[in-house]
Design goal:
The protein is an all-alpha fold. The protein has a domain of 199 residues. It contains 17 helices and 2 strands. It has a two-stranded antiparallel ribbon. The longest helix has 27 residues.
Length: 340
C-alpha cells in the first residue's frame, strides 16, 4: 500500500507498488451515474415546462422549497454541522434538518463526513472531490464514484463525535429514506397537483426534477466553488475574459485555512451573503448562539505572532481569536458597521 496514485483521468487504473493503486481505486457508483443522467435531462426539460404550462402558484411554491433546500445545505450542513461556526437550539436544528432533506443530497451525517474529509485532504489525491483537478471533477465527477478503500479508512478516522451526539442528525440518518420520500418527493409533487390544480407533468418536472437540478448544483458548489472564486497560482487574467464575469477573491484561501467563521460564504463572499444574514436573523431570534467569527485584527496579530515565534499560522490566529472573543459584545452579529 505504498504505491502512489498516478496522475490520470481514469480512476480505474492501478499504479506500481504493492497494491497501492488498487487501494486508492474508486469504482463508479452506477445508481448515482443514472441519477445524474436523469437529473440533467429531465431537469432541463423542466425549464421548458416551467415557461409553457406551469401555474404561478406552482412556481412560487417550488421556488420556496428550492431556497429552503439550499439553506439546508449551506447554513445547515456546511456552516452549522460541518464547521460548527455557531450553535443552534433544537427547533432550529429540526428546521435545518427538514431543509437539508429537501435538498435530496444524502444524510446530514454523510455530507458532513465527506466535507470534513474534503477539508482535511484539500488538494490531495485523498480528497473525494478532486480539489487537485478542476471544476468539473469537483462539481460532478466526485459525486459519481464510490469512496476508495483508502478514503473509507480516512473517513473512519475523522472526528464525528459531535455529529453522533446530535439527536436530530441521527434521527434523520435513521429515517432518511422515509423522510426523503415524504419531503423531497411527495411534498413538492403532490402539493401542486392536489391543491394548485397543476398537471402531473408540471408537478413532476418542475416540482421535483428542475428543483433538484438547481439545489444539487448549488449544493455541490460547497465543494467546488474554490475553482470559481479562488485565486490559484496558475490563474492568468490576461488569458481569459472570465475576469469580467467572475469576481476572483481570496475567499477560498481564508475559508480553507480558517473554516470556523460563520461569515465566510459558500459563493465567494464574506459577511454579505444570504447565509450569513440568515444566521444573524436566527441569532436575533435567540435560535442561534455563539456565532464564531474572526476579525481582521485577530488575523493580523496572529500572522505577526507566527512570524515572531515561528509557530503555525492557524494556531497563532486561533489563539488571538480566543483572546478577542472575551471582548466581543454579546450582540456583535448585529453591529452593522463592523460585522455587516
Amino acid at each position: 500500500m505504498e504505491g502512489k496514485l498516478a496522475t490520470n483521468t481514469d480512476d480505474k487504473k492501478t499504479t506500481t507498488g504493492e497494491g497501492g493503486g488498487q487501494f486508492k481505486k474508486r469504482d463508479a457508483s452506477w445508481p448515482m451515474v443514472l441519477f445524474y443522467v436523469h437529473l440533467n435531462i429531465l431537469g432541463f426539460y423542466g425549464i421548458y415546462v416551467l415557461f409553457t404550462s406551469t401555474s404561478l402558484l406552482t412556481i412560487i411554491f417550488t421556488a420556496v422549497l428550492t431556497l429552503l433546500g439550499i439553506l439546508g445545505e449551506t447554513v445547515g450542513v456546511h456552516r452549522l454541522w460541518a464547521h460548527r461556526t455557531f450553535k443552534a437550539n433544537a427547533p432550529l436544528r429540526v428546521f435545518l434538518m427538514i431543509c437539508q432533506t429537501l435538498a435530496g443530497q444524502g444524510t446530514i451525517y454523510s455530507r458532513v463526513q465527506a466535507h470534513r474529509l474534503h477539508h482535511a485532504k484539500f488538494r490531495t489525491d485523498e480528497d473525494p472531490y478532486y480539489s487537485n483537478q478542476n471544476f468539473l471533477y469537483a462539481h460532478v465527477r466526485g459525486n459519481l464514484f464510490k469512496y476508495s478503500p483508502q478514503q473509507e479508512e480516512l473517513l473512519q478516522k475523522l472526528e464525528m463525535w459531535d455529529i453522533e451526539a446530535d439527536s436530530v442528525v441521527m434521527f434523520q440518518k435513521r429515517f432518511y429514506v422515509l423522510l426523503y420520500i415524504v419531503l423531497n418527493v411527495l411534498l413538492p409533487v403532490n402539493t401542486p397537483f392536489q391543491y394548485f390544480g397543476e398537471t402531473i407533468l408540471g408537478a413532476m418536472f418542475v416540482g421535483f426534477w428542475l428543483r433538484s437540478l438547481i439545489v444539487v448544483n448549488v449544493g455541490n458548489l460547497v465543494n467546488s466553488a474554490h475553482f470559481v472564486w479562488g485565486i490559484h497560482k496558475d490563474f492568468k487574467p490576461s488569458d481569459s475574459n472570465s475576469i469580467f464575469i467572475i469576481t476572483k477573491s481570496f475567499w477560498p484561501q481564508f475559508h480553507y485555512l480558517l473554516p470556523n467563521d460563520y461569515q465566510s460564504g459558500e459563493f465567494g463572499d464574506y459577511s454579505q451573503g444570504i447565509g450569513s444574514a440568515m444566521i444573524r436573523v436566527f441569532a436575533a431570534l435567540d435560535l442561534a448562539t455563539d456565532l464564531r467569527t474572526i476579525s481582521s485584527v485577530a488575523v493580523r496579530k496572529g500572522l505577526t505572532q507566527a512570524l515572531d515565534t515561528d509557530r503555525p499560522i492557524v494556531e497563532c490566529i486561533e489563539e488571538q481569536v480566543k483572546l478577542e472573543e472575551n471582548e466581543l459584545p454579546a450582540n456583535h452579529f448585529l453591529n452593522r458597521n463592523k460585522f455587516m
